[in-house]
TrEMBL record:
One example GO MF annotation: carbonate dehydratase activity
Domain Alpha-carbonic anhydrase: 54-229
PANTHER family: CARBONIC ANHYDRASE (PTHR18952), CARBONIC ANHYDRASE-RELATED PROTEIN A, ISOFORM B (PTHR18952:SF228)
Transmembrane regions listed in the UniProt entry: none
The protein's name: Alpha-carbonic anhydrase domain-containing protein
Domain of life: Eukaryota
Annotated coiled-coil segments of the chain: none
A Pfam entry, by short name: Carb_anhydrase
Stated family: Belongs to the alpha-carbonic anhydrase family.
InterPro entries assigned to the protein according to its UniProt record, in alphabetical order: CA_dom, CA_dom_sf, Carbonic_anhydrase_a-class
GO biological process terms held by the UniProt record: one-carbon metabolic process
Amino acid sequence: MVRIKNTLSDEEYVHMGVPQGTVRGPPLFVTNISFLFDLPIGDREASHLDDTVFVFGANDWQGPGYWGLMNPQWNMCSKGRRQSPINVEPDKLLFDPYLNSINIDKHKVSGTLHNTGQSLVFRVDKDAKHLVNISGGPLAYRYQFEEIYIHYGIENRLGSEHQIYGYTFPAEIQLYGFNKELYHNMSEAQHKPQGIVGISLMVQIGDTPNPELRIVTSVFHKVKFKGEY
């Protein structure tokens, strides 16, 4: 949106980059160019002041699939086995006949919805009377539910962080909890072994509203901008 004196332009979504002349333009430009020369981008980069786009093909030798081989500091790009986001390919998964169901306590909790500028996050109140535990499945410990991250996009077809068979869902809900048997809180657990559990729920658009999900989505209009609670 552009303002000239007392006249405002129509509101338009920015799908990529930063509009020229914005307040954030100069600092983003400086941040942007500070690492451009370290990236193996060749001629696959298009840049216009503070707007930069990188495009890679599925088998591009300059793409993310090869970054772990180009720089020793990026070796986890090729060695990592627990990276996120991922594309789940069900036909390559191994069936575990002994895997039990995930158990989540059915307690009502209160919390705060926060716009981080990247996603909407629901955090359970610290003084909540009832704690929600996550256990079972492949988990060897009990995890205390702490946060929900909600990912969605401007377009319905591009919202989820992860994919299944290359398909991106309209939205994704991620539940996070910390290992309450080994650690005291999320901050302590997040960098420790077996510290955090994450459960992703893929969201499809249907004709029938989900009343439980609606409890959260009904207040989205109150946190339109970064930093709002």
